[in-house]
């Protein structure tokens, strides 16, 4: 069976796996973004605090994904829970680091001007600092998403959702007539999803970042 014939016969299952893969990555990115930005907001004013946050999230990223999921299985079981926890933790580093860098890079004179017109600390953060730090934060989100697209495939090891199941089935049946088709379909599906997400982020950047800041 050719690859195109395989796609034609399995397109329904592949679309379901692709939807689940995209869904779990998107949801984990939302959670990682909220947590990562909060960590950045809490630590960016402190040199040691920012370094500690960056070091902690960097350490998480050094843990092999298969090992991370394997360690989570006894605690939370199989399926979605270990997948969501692992992906959220892996997605933190680029967001935390870029949030800290972005917030520290805000021109102090703009913050002083906002303070001078009576803005509270929270208002200055929400209306001045975070909007100006948004471009590097968005870059961190893009980097995290690209990483998680690949890491999410390992979730199939824990009976998680996504295109990794197609890849693992192909690897488990090496030598059969469709083994290569399964691995190729899963891999290409992840690549296509990653490109679509990245294109969406480019559009979000154009819609949310003023032209002057982009320049």
TrEMBL record:
Which intervals hold domain ABC transmembrane type-1?
A: 18-201
Where primarily located?
membrane
Membrane association type: Multi-pass membrane protein
What keywords were assigned to this record?
Membrane, Transmembrane, Transmembrane helix, Transport
Does Nucleus count among this protein's keywords? no
Q: Which Pfam families match?
A: BPD_transp_1
Q: Would the keyword Translocase be found if you checked this record's keyword annotation?
A: no
Question: Localized where?
Answer: Cell membrane; Membrane
InterPro entries in UniProt: ABC_transp_perm/SBD (IPR051204), MetI-like (IPR000515), MetI-like_sf (IPR035906)
Lineage: superkingdom: Bacteria
Q: Which residues cross the membrane?
A: 24-44, 51-73, 179-204
> What family is this?
Belongs to the binding-protein-dependent transport system permease family.
Q: What is this protein called?
A: ABC transporter permease
Q: Tell me which species this is from.
A: Streptomyces doebereineriae
């Amino acid at each position: 069976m050719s690859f195109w014939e395989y796609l034609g016969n399995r397109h329904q299952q592949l679309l379901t796996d692709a939807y689940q893969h995209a869904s779990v990555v998107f949801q984990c990115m939302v959670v990682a973004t909220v947590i990562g930005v909060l960590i950045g907001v809490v630590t960016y004013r402190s040199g040691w605090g920012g370094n500690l946050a960056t070091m902690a999230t960097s350490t998480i990223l050094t843990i092999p994904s298969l090992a991370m999921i394997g360690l989570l299985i006894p605690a939370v079981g199989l399926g979605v829970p270990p997948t969501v926890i692992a992906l959220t933790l892996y997605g933190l580093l680029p967001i935390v680091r870029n949030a800290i860098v972005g917030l520290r890079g805000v021109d102090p004179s703009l913050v002083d001007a906002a303070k001078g017109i009576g803005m509270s600390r929270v208002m200055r953060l929400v209306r001045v600092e975070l909007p100006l730090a948004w471009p590097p934060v968005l870059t961190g989100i893009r980097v995290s998403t690209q990483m998680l697209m690949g890491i999410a495939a390992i979730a199939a090891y824990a009976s998680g959702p996504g295109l990794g199941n197609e890849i693992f089935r192909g690897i488990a049946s090496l030598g059969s007539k469709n083994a290569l088709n399964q691995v190729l379909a899963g891999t290409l599906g992840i690549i296509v999803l990653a490109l679509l997400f990245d294109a969406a982020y480019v559009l979000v950047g154009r819609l949310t970042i003023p032209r002057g800041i982009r320049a």
